[in-house]
TrEMBL record:
Coiled coil: none annotated. It catalyses: tRNA(Lys) + L-lysine + ATP = L-lysyl-tRNA(Lys) + AMP + diphosphate. It is an enzyme of class 6 (ligase). This is Lysine--tRNA ligase. Signal peptide: none annotated. It is found in: Cytoplasm. It comes from Streptomyces wuyuanensis.
Length: 576
């Protein structure tokens, strides 16, 4: 592996290899990296790794001053395989389009887009722009129907026996592998992600009685791919097919026919050669023995006189916390769903800090608050120059691209604080501004815009991901029964708290106060080290405050909660 001074993380190491390989294969030409996405339905958040892995490597190469082309191949000429559940504006009647190219299927009802593929592409394109991903889109529908691959298709047909021979070496291996995999429990989310990640399960074109053909026409009558090639004459390129769906049959000249495609296992290596791809990772479903990546490596060398890209396998990305909500909706989380609750740099960071072969989860649950804490801590370490090199590199890849900084929240207040405030104020702007300004009275917020877009993300998280029964509802009236039942010690601790409110009215001040009251009650100094007894006393004091303020045993952090409730209302609810 090449050494370089910037070799601090996985991205740099791949960039070293990809630059060296590109120089060897295509000296002086732009480096080409690739991703493939199938717009067969909403593009799953898990599939973002297909784009982020080459993006991060491409961005590093760009930073080093090389020209890079990140090709995103839209597999929009793939067949429509099934009607996804839970997509708005789609019902069972879409089932009649199964077998047609994705670009020939009508878009969901009410969509401004001309067809199915364009509809689902559009959402992804928008998310990629927000994520700072620069790419060169290639529509496979356009490529195939314009005849761009004519030479390659004729070449593959000419060498169909060779291709069949290569595929045959793997067919038995694949069967054995499939049997092995059947015994393994399969994670449902992984299965979903695998389905979304392209044509892994598509057949390889093993043919009927006329022999093997690596090419499949879409029917001239019904547009479906349920066709069988019945004859092919090499000399004239005359191809005869019949459709099992509608019975239509015709003879066309492949040297001028543009309504069909190479089968996936031939299509993919053909494109590696056509575009000169140096780097293209693939999901685990593509990397088993007999998989398209492995078979493709042999086909690209032996048939298309090209080379296989450097292609690391990436592990699946899971989602934590959204499962329940998404299944009730029938849908799957998309990158746009993630970008509603977290800023683009944070989402980029999740990919940058993990090697492609490490799996991780994207948090839609409480974990997002811890993740944001970790990110803020890293940011301050980077600012102090105290971050480890690999951590600093991951931060830099998340926060900016070769083109510049991603948009940033001017005053990045802690996400968990913003979420608590949003929880309590239910999005009331005036109240939110008051509370956020009181967090640090010496340096108050002048406008909510300073806390945006992070504030908006935290608000969205609270309203879309936190279940109603976990939301905080501040009492409107004191709990007279509970207050009446308190012993002298509890009353005294509440009195001490209320007495200190005004002089401690900031996030730091109230933190000192709520931890300090139990210390005073125990006769300890304010800076006393916590003992197990003191910790227990603090826990029961906090539980009492939660019960009196929000009728529960827990809630947002107390200092934030007190600020959010406001001093007057705190006095009203806690006066024993
Ligand atoms: Zn037909």
């Amino acid at each position: 592996m090449a050494q370089s001074s910037t070799e601090t993380d996985w991205v740099s190491r791949f960039a070293d290899d990809v630059i060296a390989e590109s120089e060897r294969r295509a000296p002086g030409k732009p480096v080409v990296v690739a991703s493939g996405l199938s717009p067969s339905g909403p593009i799953h958040l898990g599939n973002l790794r297909e784009v982020m892995t080459p993006h991060l490597v491409a961005d590093e190469i760009r930073r080093r001053g090389h020209e890079v082309r990140h090709v995103i191949s839209w597999d929009d000429y793939d067949r429509y395989r099934k009607v996804p559940a839970g997509v708005e504006g789609v019902d069972d009647s879409w089932g009649e389009h199964i077998g047609k190219p994705l670009t020939s299927v009508p878009a969901p009802a009410g969509s401004p887009h001309p067809n199915w593929a364009e509809h689902f592409k559009a959402a992804m394109v928008e998310s990629l722009a927000e994520l700072g991903v620069e790419f060169d889109p290639i529509s496979q529908t356009e490529q195939y129907t314009s005849g761009a691959y004519r030479e390659q298709i004729l070449h593959a047909m000419k060498h169909r026996a060779r291709i069949d021979g290569i595929l045959d070496q793997y067919r038995t291996k694949a069967k054995v592998q499939a049997k092995k995999q059947q015994q393994k429990p399969v994670d449902e989310a992984e299965l979903e992600a695998a389905e979304g990640s392209g044509a892994a399960s598509e057949d390889d074109g093993s043919g009927g009685s006329a022999g093997y053909f690596p090419y499949k026409p879409y029917c001239g009558n019904c547009e479906k791919d349920l066709t069988t090639v019945t004859e092919y004459i090499d000399a004239t390129t005359e191809l005869t097919y019949s459709c099992t769906a509608c019975g239509f049959s015709e003879t066309v000249r492949l040297s001028e026919f543009n309504r069909g495609k190479l089968v996936w296992k031939v299509d993919w290596p053909m494109r590696w050669a056509y575009e000169g791809v140096i780097f293209e990772p693939s999901g685990v479903d593509h990397s088993s023995p007999g998989s398209s990546f492995v078979v493709g490596g042999q086909i690209v060398r032996e048939v298309f006189d090209g080379a296989q890209p450097i292609g690391p396998m990436y592990a699946f990305v899971g989602i934590s916390g959204m499962a329940k909500m998404s299944s009730s909706r029938g849908g799957v989380p998309t990158p746009a769903d993630a970008l509603k609750i977290m800023e683009a740099p944070l989402l980029r960071w999740l990919y940058a800090r993990r090697k492609p072969n490490q799996s991780f989860k994207i948090a839609f649950d409480q974990e997002i608050q811890r993740l944001y804490d970790e990110w803020d801590k890293l940011e301050s370490k980077v600012a102090e120059g105290a971050a480890l090199p690999a951590d600093a590199a991951a931060y830099s890849r998340a926060a900016r691209t070769a083109a510049g900084e991603l948009s940033r929240t001017p005053r990045p207040l802690p996400y968990r604080t913003l979420a608590s405030v949003a929880d309590i104020t239910a999005g009331h702007d005036e109240q939110t501004l008051r509370i956020l300004s009181e967090l640090d009275p010496a340096n108050p917020l002048t406008s909510l815009d300073e806390a945006r877009p992070r504030l908006d993300r935290a608000e969205n998280w609270i309203t879309t991901q936190v279940p109603a029964d976990a939301r905080t509802v501040v009492r409107s009236e004191p709990d007279a029964e509970l207050l009446g039942s308190l012993d002298d010690e509890a009353r005294e601790s509440l009195r001490l708290l209320l007495e200190g409110l005004d002089s401690h009215w900031s996030l730091d001040g109230l933190t000192t106060l709520v931890y300090g009251v139990p210390k005073v009650m125990a006769g300890l100094e304010p800076d006393a080290k916590p003992t197990p007894e003191l910790k227990a006393a603090q826990r029961s004091f906090f539980a009492l405050l939660y019960r009196l303020l929000v009728s529960r045993e827990t809630g947002p952090r107390l200092p934030t909660l007190l600020l959010a409730v406001g001093a007057d209302r705190v006095r009203k609810l806690l006066a024993a």
